[in-house]
Request: fold
Amino acid sequence: MVSTQAQKSIFYRLHIDPYLLLGLFALMSISLTVLYSVAGYEMIYRQVTRLAIALTVMLVIAQIPPEWYRRWAPGIFIACVLLLIAVLVIGHTGKGAQRWLDLGFTKFQPSEIMKLIMPLMVAYYVSQYTLPTRFKQAVIALLIVIVPTLLIAKQPDLGTSILVASSGLFVLFLSGISWLYIGIALASILAFVPILWFFLMLDYQRGRVLTLLNPEADPLGAGYHIIQSKIAIGSGGFWGKGWLHGTQSQLEFLPERHTDFIFSVYSEEFGFIGVLLLLTIYILIIGRGLWIANQAQDAFTKLIAGSIILTFFVYVLVNIGMVSGLLPVVGVPLPIVSFGGTSIVTLLAGFGILMSIHTHKRFNIKR
Amino acid sequence: MLRKRNSIRNHSAESSLFMRRTIVVFVAILIAIGILITNLYYLQISSFKSYQTRSNANRISVQTVPPNRGLIYDRNGVILAENRPVYSLQVIKNKTNDLNNDIKRLTKLLSLTEDELKKFNSNTRYTRSFRAITIRDQLTPEEVALFTVNQHKFKGFSIQASLKRYYPYGTAFTHVLGYIAKINSRDLQKIEQRGERARYQGTHYIGKLGIEKFYEDILHGEPGQRQVEVDSWGKVIRTLQFTAPVPGKDIRLNIDINLQLKAQELLGDMRGSIILMEAKTGAILSLVSAPSYDPNLFVTGISQTQYNKLLQSKDRPLINRATQGRYPPASTIKPQMALLALNEKVITEETKIKDPGWWIVPNSKRRFRDWKRWGHGMVDVFHAIEQSCDTFFYDTAYKLGIDRIEPFMRLFGFGEYSGLDLAEETKAIMPSRDWKSNRFKQPWYDGDTISVGIGQGYWTVTPIQLTKATAVLARRGENIEPHILGSIISSGEEFSPVHESIQPIQLHDQRYWDIALEAMRGVTSKRSGTAHRAFANTTYTVAGKSGTAQVINMKEDEEYDAEKINERHRDNAMFIAFAPFESPEIVATVVLENAGGGSTNAAPIARALFDEYFKNIPPPTQ
Reply:
């Protein structure tokens, strides 16, 4: 990228990427618009507070040179795995899903930190060797991915474990492991599906998959959410019902309107045209992220930049897929748009890393 | 390590490999987004008509119907906590023709206050136009009538009926019943933790204190479900399916309303606590803590000023003195001390010691004074309990030592939870060597034991512990657990919870019980007994023990507050008793803060309560 002198003097020095920032602001505006429609002023106020915190975190992280990430990755990774184990052990006393660790002054989810640290750790490991990654390294890297993923899946938090696993696997993919191995891996996953279904999945998880396959079978029970969500999206039509006029969402037919199902509210009120606008913003952000990854100076930073932006895409894919009835409901928010504290902080922290990679170059590449 | 392995690294090859992979990924992303868009196109464009129809027509909404809360009765069936219908005035903004004008007319009709209008205005700003906004909670019947005849003039306004918890006896039962109040975020967390979110979906109130809290699970009930069809503005057109909620179970308490009100009346504006318990069953007949406050305030939502007033009051009305008040037991524990001394053969029935009005720790100059300056003369164990001789027990305690006293007193429930069905309870302090070294980082001194010997020093008890300990005495070591809940009423049938029996206290000789109990009988019956005057001419036989605690105030967090001491420097008056002596039926504990001597102030109250009790239930003639 050729940056002008003016950009260098302001954004570059602040370690901000103006294009990414613009895209994020566009998403945040959409978020606040829809949140107002769903829940009024109070929710806006709370979301603005969270966004402010998240943006601050992003700015702070952007100031840290990538070299530091490399240095700290293994230590933080190990600490984080220990915390996940702690959550599980303490979790035996509580009921239901145990994801939080109470530090006395604050509660936090170690699994959120794992989302960030996983690509750093895998990239740290594979970038010690020359690319493409060989079989032996790939196996060790897989172990690094699997342990935390299983710990999180056991909480049980399926959505987060998918995100954590994919952030690690993306690094492996980008590091150029052979297509043959990828093919074998995919085949063995397919073979694993029956085992997963019959032995590992909990009843409610199986229920979600069955619901996905045929939501109309139980319209007032398990299928209710998906049907209502599809009606909301479908009845939006091309132009949408208009802001504040989405009956499906305003009359509370939709569940989790401000968090996981916010896309349904948006599509109902802004229609297909609004959906295209939103997806365009996402594609632009992802494109910019991949560009930054390619411009990065060494294997380590390339891999983490690529993985962060691809994980961001997984959020989009899984969330929109689940609310529009293509994927099972797994509790993944629509990135930056859904209401939610920790997930927004983690996401923007990831963008902070991207910006740090893009603005901390030791020398200019000249081709 | 890193650099070594990278020595033959080909950066441009790595870059182009990475670039190739990125392009693959980007294409995959575009394909995935293409699939998403195709699906959305299918939903929003191709199937638009069908979904639009469904959105307009298929308006099935599932509503949770909260259960009615169980009622609470006293043992005679008098209602202590009920659900009263209340009416609130609501408006749905977009159904009105001219809201401002309507509000003006309504202000005239119902004389709405400034505050109500202000609240309403801010609510209208933050509420969507098709949601109901409450204008006034709790309309009086007159207001309901007034509005109803004028309703045709107010389009979009309506009166909504709902049930509200009401405690008809107000302050008299606060410390027993507690209250319910709006569910707050902390309650929600607990509900979530118990996995009961669905159960509390439509519920707005939860037990916060007392019986309402302790038996929340029984009182709450199970919610029902209503599947309804609604119009495009969310108004219910018809009910498709209805699963009725299961109301919470009613409960009957052991409390007797007459004794409870009598006890409250006797306490008047004093600070203190009264407990009456059935000796045979452990049923709590009356449990009063004064001062009290109106629990109904909390149901409607207490104002911050009112709450602060309660919170900051020097009289501490929010504390349940019966279970949370920590007082030195003073002489009330002398019977138990005598029992231990007899059992350990430190004294015998015949042991007599000389009381010159003071006692000196052997080999020291530390002098402990008896309450009677000139002394009691030659004192045996009967005399020591009847006249509450301190010197006798200084000597006894010194010989016993804290290591024998502490475990024995725990058998009577001191320093332990009583097992009462209220969550608000403190264990108070049964001091020991370990306790002192943990608490003060100091060794235990002989002097500490001497104070403990007459129920002073570090030792504190709660009135409920005293009640339990008295019952154990009256039952000659048979242990008992006090309880407020009598029975649970479920679909017309009543069943009482079964209480586990607890290990009785075993002494070497049953005669020891006779000695302690006979001495307690002497307290009220012998001319020389401390409470003789209070129990003159009773139709029943009584045993008791007075206590006069030399403390400044009830110990709450062991705070030392010089100001309070100056204001409230009088002794605490205490009295424990049971009757009839031959076959104990009722146990009483009276604790009055800063009221002076126990036999002169607390004993007459216990007498009045026994009179009230035996008025209805004539004692068996012996």
Summary: DSSP finds 14 helices and two strands in chain A. Chain A touches chain B through 59 residues (CB under 8 Å). The first helix of chain A runs from residue 5 to 14.
